[in-house]
Specification:
The protein is mainly alpha-helical. It contains ten helices and no strands. Helix 3 packs parallel to helix 6 and helix 3 runs antiparallel to helix 7 (158-175). The longest helix has 30 residues, at 50-79. The relative contact order is 0.14.
Length: 245
Amino acid sequence: MKHWIAFWNILAKDMRAYYLKPPNISWGIVFPLAWTAMFFIRSGSGLDSIPALLPGVMAVSVLFGTTSMLAVTVTFEKKGRSFERLLLAPIPLELLMFAKTAGAILFGVANAFVPVIMAAVLSDLSGVRWGVLLPAIVLIAISSTFLGLFIAVSVSEVFEAQTFSNFFRFPMLFLCGLFFPVASLPFWLRPLSYVLPLTYGADLLHEAVSRTGKLPPWLDFILLAVFCAGLFAVSLRNVRRKWIT
């Protein structure tokens, strides 16, 4: 019970200190809206294009929201040495790091629903498979957050974390099937797509919204969960190597 009280206190502190600040709330709303408007205008195909664009916009909103917030929060606290003090908390490291990332996961899930709300106003979403869409959004948020954690614990400065984040984020925009199929990529790039977790999240979103997924949903879920576990394990290893041992 004490462990979960500590978990809640860490999460509540981060929500107050970072995620519920007015600039972050407004950024979390404006950023997905800007992506939605940009791709909608670029497509030039009217309201009928919204369901086709929705999976990509949702995934991008989650990816950039989670990784950007972790790059700031964890790297800033490392620089101020409050991260080292946090590691002294008498709870398991796994629970501690999950508490530290839970706020970013919630922030990413909230970002994903900004374009969904906009699309629901402008288009018909009655055909969406919510039973696939909702867990897919959560897993994308978790995998993106753990990617951000891996980046944040690997660098020393916020600008380094942002630069390192872009090394992963921008290739994902083109390689993960967000806005055009992986099959349309040059054959020598396709293997790279399948080593990126967002490929499987995007496939789930396409299946949920427009029934155009290329892989069985159960396989996407399993592979995305494996990426989540792997990124979390690597991040924990880096924390133990740098601050505990």
